[in-house]
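#data-curation
PF: Archiving a pair of folding outputs for the training set. Convention for this channel: one message per protein, sequence first, structure tokens after, nothing in between. First:
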Amino acid sequence: MFYGAEVWDPWLIAAQIVCLQCLYYLTLGFFLCFLVGTRVSRLTLVYFFDFATITTSTVTGRCVIASLLPSSFAGAGYMLYLIERSKKCLDFSATLFIIHLFICIIYGGWPSSITWWVVNGTGFAVMAWLGKYLCSERELREIPISRYRSNV
């Protein structure tokens, strides 16, 4: 892909946001199934969106934290393929976590737990920094040139 003059495409941006959000929640659900699903009788949306479940005082709460952080690492990998530009990683990471905050507010109220803010802030930082690093490494790769050039 060539990165010359960028064209502002709102449909592409919206599709990237939706895809990144869906992949993040699918990954979070995968980790929650294995880490929290084995500890509780029924895995519900409470573990996705209620701030009260993110706690260090219970083993289940620590398992929820252990599910959120690898999901951020995976989100950085998703940005490598969906976003492709290092300068856009901070924007897309912030968008993902702001949407997550709004969903959490709608589901369980304003997150009053400091643990929720620390865990999600760390997840945001990991996703933004690692996504930026991975995308910049891809952008800085040499362009392969064929051994055999045509005689022009």
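PF: Second:
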Amino acid sequence: MRDESIFDLDELNEECGVFGIIGHADAAQLTYYGLHALQHRGQESAGIVTTDGQKFSVQRGTGLVTEVFNNNNIKQLLGSTGIGHVRYSTTGGTGLANAQPLVFKYAKGELAIATKGNLVNAKKLRRDLEELGSIFQTTTDTEVIAHLIARSSAPNIVEAAKEALNQLVGAYALMIMTNDTLIVAEDPHGLRPLSMAKMGEATVFSSETCAFDVIGAEFVRDIEPGEMLVFDAEGMRTTTFAPKAERAICSFEHVYFARPDSNVGGVNVHAARKRMGRILAEEAPVEADVVTGVPDSSTSAAIGFAEATGIPYELGLIKNRYVGRTFIQPSQELREQGVKMKLSAVRGVVAGKRVVMVDDSIVRGTTSRRIVTMLREAGATEVHVRISSPPVKNPCFYGIDTPDREQLIAAQKTVEEIRQEIGADTLTFISVEGMLRAIGRPASERNRGHCIACFTGEYPTVLEDELVLEGKR
């Protein structure tokens, strides 16, 4: 289960990672390795469902991939087709009931679904389905999709899936599996990336390309917005379930979520973050003695900033990689000190120095304040904060766990007020234009094909009124 005590006070978290494979005798083992590579996308639960063409084998549990799976239960996952999931909840509760892939029995057989993202019309769809007699067993958006498929009068699973997906509004990359069919689909805006690779005769899908490298699969291409891939007795075919809309890849994939060794939208994440650091140096130069990044997601941007300015890059902050999850509930006083369990300042690096601290984002401001204080306590004479994303002023409805708008510090305070709040000598955020230029995707598409709603408030889909009334805006 996610530790709500000290580790998620001021971080953005993305909902889930998915992995799938078809046509390999070791489907379960390869899915395990794929999920392990995607562990950073969700630590609450993990699951794998496989099929041998006749029946499903299922293993799901709460906790990390290495805690849920072992040699014994992996061997019990039979078949050459499998889908897997790691979960961080932004909607629905924690616990085994909401662990994916979700498995259902309905009139036409068995059905397994793994999704990542968030539907902005899920509550309305759920109400409508309940009025028609549907009984829900979980609180996830994913179950809504299953009920839509089960209630469809379409002649087969492919047409039923198309009918269901056309009722969804929001961000999703998903895999739907029966005993004889695998369906892979991407929302019409491509908000949540999904890629395809080949491994011999097998075909592999993953939220991030880093999982392909782990298992030795060769990247083929990204799944297109509105595209549906179908694998069944007839082989593989591609179709569309909806017209391709304006592409809007989540910009935080490059800023924060994806692993540096992944490529998202054809762009290497590490290279994009280094360019963010270089552009930050152009937009906000400063005289200093040392540059350090907040590990790990800000390290690349810090290196880019250092290279552009000529200021030495040093490991001024060290991450404790063995914190894991805690079952000890701290007092409020200890909770305020919790960041020290995750990070330590290197006194020998920062003492007596003017320090540039590069971080990827500021959400509530609490963590930034603690890190600035930590650097000063370690002897830094000045702390200049540079942020490789623009100010986060608006909540995300597409699968990022952002707080309500009133809890986002940039929505309530000016940059100067934030600087004072976190105790920095100077504070600068990269511009929206600078961030998009750093990512480097072609300028032919609006916002270079990215969603920037959390910075500008320009959402790529229509939002349900109830979300607004709930105070998210």
